[in-house]
Amino acid sequence: MEKGELARELRLLKENGIGGVEINPIKFPAKTNDLGKPSLEWLSPEWIELLQFTFSEAKSLGMTCDLIVGSGWPFGAEWLQGEERSQVVVIGTKKLQGPLDYEVSMFELFKEADPAISSPFAGRQMEMLSIKLVPVNINTIEDVKDLPDQIKNEFVKCKIPEGKYILYALVKISGFMAVIQGAPGATGPVLNHYNESAVKKYLARMSETIQEKLGPLSIHIRSLFSDSLELEGANWSHDMQSEFEKRRGYDLTPWLPFILFKTGIMGNSILSDYGAAYSPAFNEMIERIRYDFELTKTELIKERFLDSFISWCKENKVQSRMQAYGRGYFPLDASLDADIPECETWIRPGLGNDMSETDYRLGRAYTMVNKFVSSAAHLKGKKHISCEELTNIHMVFNESLELMKIAGDQSIISGVTHPIFHGFNYSPPEALFPGWVIYGTFLNERNPWWPYFKLFTSYKARLSAILQQATMFADIAILPATVDMWSIYGVQNEPFPAIMHPEWQTFTWESIHQNGNACDYVSEKIIRDATIQSGHLVYGPRKYHTLFLTRVESMEPATSKKLFEFIESGGRIFFIERFPGKAPGWLNHQERDKEVQDWVTRMKSFPDRSILLEKPGKDFTSWYKNIQEKYNITPYVKMDPTNHFITQVRYQANETEMLLFINSDIHHSYKITITPEAAINSGKQAWIWDAESGERYLLDHPGSKITLDMGPADLKLIVFDKERKGIPYHPVKIDTDLIELNNPWSLTGQHIDGTMIKTEMKNLTDLKEISTWINFCGNMIYHSNFEISDVNKLEWLNLGKVFGVSEIFINGKNAGSKWYGRRIYSIKNFIQNGNNDIEIKIVTTMGNYLKSLKDNPIAQFWTNEGRTIQPVQSLGLLGPVTIY
C-alpha cells in the first residue's frame, strides 16, 4: 500500500456515491504480480502510519471509516500460543470384522480423525483422548468397551470378537485451523474463541497498538467490525468438560464420541455411514446430549467472545458492528446486542431467473441469516441493519448493475437498511489487468459499467436514507426448530448450513410477505422474556398477534407455559406439521417432557387458537394465501394476483406509511392490484417515490385500489402521508400497437483493450452466438435510422431485451440511460418528422472476455476454474426495438 494510491481510491469512491469504507486488511491475492511492492505487516508502525493517513483522508472527504478486527477470517495471529489457539475434538472410525487380532498405528488413527476442513494449520498438534470398541449396533452405553491402556502406545492392539465392530478414536487437535486469507502479522493459527482471556488479550493488543500511535480510536472510526465466525467446527477449550458438567449437571465424557459427527469443509457435519447404528432409545439419548453440548458451546461463545467483543467496543467508545453468526451462535439472540447487527447478501447463479421451492439459495441473494439478524434488530428497536452486500465468488466479472439491483432489493425485503458493498479491491492503475482481485463483486474503475455506477449508489442511498428513519412493521412471529436441528444434526455453518431443518424454513417467511403480511423470527428466549398483553406477545417495541412454529418438536417447559398464556389471552399459534412434545436436553428430561406435554394439552383446549397445519406443499405462496383466507389473517395490503417473484415490506415513520414492492424476475413483468388496509390509506394521499430519480408523484387510487405494473427488476415505493400537492404520476405507457425499427444496424465495438470491431447486422441477435463478438468487453454502438411522418403520434422507444447498460442518442441528443428492467425511453423531445438518426450504446460485463484470456491466471481463476466455471453470457441488444 502507498499513500498516494489510498488517497486516489478514496476520492474515486467518494465521487461515485460511496459514503464510507470498511478497512479490511487481507492477504495479497495469489497468482498476481505485486509489482515488487512489499506487503505490510498488520499492526506494524508502517501499517499504522498508512491507517492514520487513510483516516485523515476519509475525514477530509466526509467519509465514514469502520475497521475490521484482525485480518482474514476467523481472526488469529502468528503469536498465539497453546490454549490461545483454536481447538477441536473430532472422531476417527475404523470398521472391523471379527474375530480378529487387530493392530493399527496411532498415526493412522490421527490421519483418520483429521478433519477435512478448508484451512488446516500446519502446526496443529494431536492428542488421543480415548479409544473405544463398539458393536456396529449400539443399544446402551454398556455395549461400549473402553481401551484406556492403548492411548499412550504407538500402535493400538486389540482382539476383535466375532461380529462387526467399530473402533472409535476421540482426538483433540490444538491449533487445528489457520486464518483464511490472513495478512502478515495476522495469519497463522486462529484464535480460540472459547478462551475469554485469549479473546480479550487479542482485542486489547489490536486497540492498544493502534491507539499508542494514533490516540483514541473513537476520533477516527465509527465501529469495529467482526466478520462471521467460520470456525470450521471448533468446539473445545481446556475447561469445556467442567463447564459442561457445571451447566448441564452430568459428565459429558462417556458420550462425546457418539454425539460428534465427522467434520468436513467449513466445519459442516458429514452424515455418511462411518459410525455405529443407534437403537431408537440410545439415539434419543444421544440427540438430547448433543443438544446439551451445542448449548454449552453456544453459551461459552456468547459469554467469552461475543460479550467480550461488545464490551471492548464500548470501552473504546466506538460502535460494535458484527456478523453474529457462523458456527456456535444463537441464530437470533446473538444479534440482539451489537450496535450495528449485520447479515450478508450474495450475487449467485440463478438470481433473477428462478425462485426455487426446493433449494432455498436458488434465486435468492439474501442468505438464511438475514431474517434472523433483521428480526433481532427490530426486537431491539434498531434501525441501522447492516449487510455485507453483493458478496460474490461465483459470478465475478459477470455481475451487472441490474443483478446488483435485484440483490440489493432483496436485501431490503429481508429487513436490511444499510448496505456495505463487497467489495472494492485496493489495486493501483499500473497493476496488470484486471488488477489485484481478492474477493467480491468487481467494483473497479476498469469495469466498463463503472461510469454508470453512481446511478446504482444514488438509488441505494435514497432508499437507505428513508428506511433508516422508519420502522419495519411486523405483527406475526415465526419460531424456527433450532433446538431440534441442533439435537439431530448439530449446529450448522451459517449462513450456508449444510442442512436446513425443516428444509422449507426460509419459504415460510417469504410466503407471508408475498401475501401482504409481515413477520419476524423469534427465539425461545424472546418468548420467555416477552409479556402478554390482550392476545399479543410483546417484546420491546414489537407486538405479535400470531405465531407460526415450523416443525418445532422440542422446547423448554417455560416456553410452552408462556405460549399457553399467549393463547389463553387471545393470541393464536399455528403449529406446522406437529405439536411440541418434549423438552430439550438430557437431565430430568422425562419430567420436563411431561411439563411440555401438559402445557400443549392445555393449549389444545382452545382449538380456534391452537391450530395444526400440514407442512407446505410445492406452492408456498398459495399455501399461505389459503391459510390467510381460511383463518382470517387480515393482510395489511391485499395483493392480486400473488406471485413468488413479487414481495413486499411495510415501514412506518410517525404518521407516514410506506409499502415497498419488488419484482425479482430479471426477464418478466407482472401487473398486480394492491388494496392497502384503512389504517394505511385512510385520510392520506398515496405517492410514488422514485428512488432512481429522487422525484415523488401523486398516485391516483380510486376506491383504495392501486394497480402496479412491476417491470423486470423493478421496485415501487408507495408512501402515504398528509401532503396533497404534487405532480401526478404518469407511468411509462406499455402499448401493443408497436412500430418495429427493422432497418439494418451498423455495430461498432470499442473494446476495453483499445481495439475496434465493426459489423453490419440485418437482424439483432445475441452476440454470444457470433464468434467475432463472443469475447467482447466494452462499449457497443448500434447505429440506424428510422422515418417518422407524424411526431405527435409517437412518444416512446422500447429497446426490448438488453444485456448490459443502455444509453441512447437520437439525432445527436442524449435521451438518457437505463441500467435495469425495461429499456423504455421518452423520445418526444428528440424525434422529428422525416429521417431520424438513432445510436444505442450498450455497455457489457467482463466475464466472456476474461474467460478468453488463457494466459491470465486471475481471469482464469474466477471464470474457468473449480467452482467458478462460468458459462458464456449473453451480450448486446436483442430487441426488438420499437416505437409507439
What characteristics describe this protein?
single chain, 884 residues, alpha/beta, seven-stranded parallel beta sheet, seven-stranded mixed beta sheet, 19 helices, 45 strands, 25% helix, 27% strand, globular
Structure commentary:
There is one protein chain. The chain is α/β, with parallel strands linked by helices and about 900 residues long. It has 19 helices and 45 strands. The strands form eleven sheets. The protein has a seven-stranded parallel beta sheet with strand order 1-2-8-12-13-14-15. Strands 16-26-27-32-29-30-33 form a seven-stranded mixed beta sheet. A six-stranded antiparallel beta sheet has the order 36-35-37-43-40-41, with no helix packed on it. Helix 4 packs parallel to helix 7 (about 280-315), helix 12 packs across helix 16 and helix 14 (about 555-570) packs parallel to helix 15 (about 590-605). The chain is globular, with a radius of gyration of 30 Å.
Span between termini = 54 Å
Structural class: alpha/beta
* Rg computed from alpha carbons, rounded to a whole number of angstroms: 30 Å
Number of helical segments with 4 or more residues: 19
How would you sum up the major sheet? 7 strands, parallel
Structure summary:
It contains 19 helices and 45 strands.
Outline the fold blueprint:
Elements: H1 3-15, E1 20-23, H2 45-60, E2 64-68, E3 87-105, H3 106-113, E4 125-135, E5 137-138, E6 145-146, E7 155-174, H4 196-214, E8 223-226, H5 240-248, H6 256-259, E9 262-263, E10 269-270, E11 277-278, H7 280-315, E12 319-322, E13 340-346, H8 369-379, E14 386-391, H9 401-413, E15 418-421, H10 453-467, E16 471-472, E17 476-479, H11 482-489, H12 505-513, E18 519-521, H13 524-529, E19 531-533, E20 536-539, E21 542-544, E22 546-550, H14 557-568, E23 572-576, H15 589-604, E24 610-613, H16 620-630, E25 637-640, E26 646-653, E27 656-663, E28 670-676, H17 678-681, E29 685-689, E30 696-698, E31 706-710, E32 715-721, E33 727-728, E34 739-740, E35 745-751, E36 756-761, E37 778-788, E38 796-798, E39 801-803, E40 805-810, E41 813-818, E42 824-826, E43 834-843, H18 847-852, H19 857-863, E44 876-879, E45 882-883
Helix pairs in contact: 1-2, 4-7, 5-7, 7-11, 12-16, 14-15
